[in-house]
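Structure tokens please, single chain.
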Amino acid sequence: MKQGWEKRNLGEVVEVLDNLRKPITKRDRVEGEYPYYGATGILSYVHNYIFSEKLVLIGEDGAKWLSGDNTSFIAEGKYWVNNHAHVIRPIRKLILDEWIVYFLNFSDLTPFITGMTVPKLNQEKMRSIPIPLPSLPEQQRIVAILDEAFTAIAKARANAEQNLKNAKELFESYLQGVFENSDWETKTLGEIGDPKMCKRILKHQTNTTGEIPFYKIGTFGKIPDAFISKEIYDEYRTKYSFPKKGDILISASGTIGRRVRYDGEPAFFQDSNIVWIDNNEKQVLNDYLYVFYEFCDWQPSKGATISRLYNSNLTSIKIVFPKSLEEQKTILKKINAVSVETKRLEAIYQQKINDLEELKKSVLQKAFNGELKTATAVV
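Here you go.
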């Protein structure tokens, strides 16, 4: 903190208006024109209001309190606030609303959070948060610089996010064009090969440690949390259906269509939840199937609790492909080249977004250390 600046507890420079807030259950809310605020912002709009002035709201519970989590925000006009956000009125001859919001959102407030199961920034802790207090003209100068800098950062971030979105959409559009080629062969997956699944493994046959990973729908493509014995693995993979190296495994429930290329390493997969097309690659290469599955229009059957991809759903899906396997290889090379370039662009734009977030933290650090001179120096 800059020499000469005062430091006060938040409760010393604000009025707390928590006694005026009122919760409305979801079923009792009557839709209207006035914002209904909770811990993280506007939840809905209601037909009445209880505040009609500019105030600062701070998440009490149901919020996040790490640096950069936007714990605090300003509410203006006419609005309603429930009991999950503190309502404070700055003593404006001492401190600006915007100074409080910038500082709280910059700060890591987790040391002030109580409760293990339901984390909460209670009023006592909120009041005890120390806040630097330069003169009002100095606060106004710094807030003006932060407003200008953050506007520029927000614009740059929006551009980077749009570029990231465009890169992803262009690749998806390219792939969609590939799989809509009317000059190619059109068949159903059932005409390419038969749907298969592993033999069912019962719960008592699994352990939390063991020799052979057993992938369930929740750990498919991730780290396994269950294992089976080598004896069961050896017996089941020889007696029953088992994927060949290179086969493309598909999640048939949960996140439908998530796919993994089986690498041939010892592993077992949860029967009807993880399936594959037993493909001999005489018509379609597995690598081609792998790309096709990513953008396939899955049509699962919808049950009461969960959607599921049954064999009939899987075998009826149409796939378009060149008859020549060599042409498929050529197409895959082109797709891979476009994918590599897309990932390169995505990495650039994502890094730009990350850099802008770090810049925001750096600007705020300078602001509350009293080192911020002009906005042009930081954007």
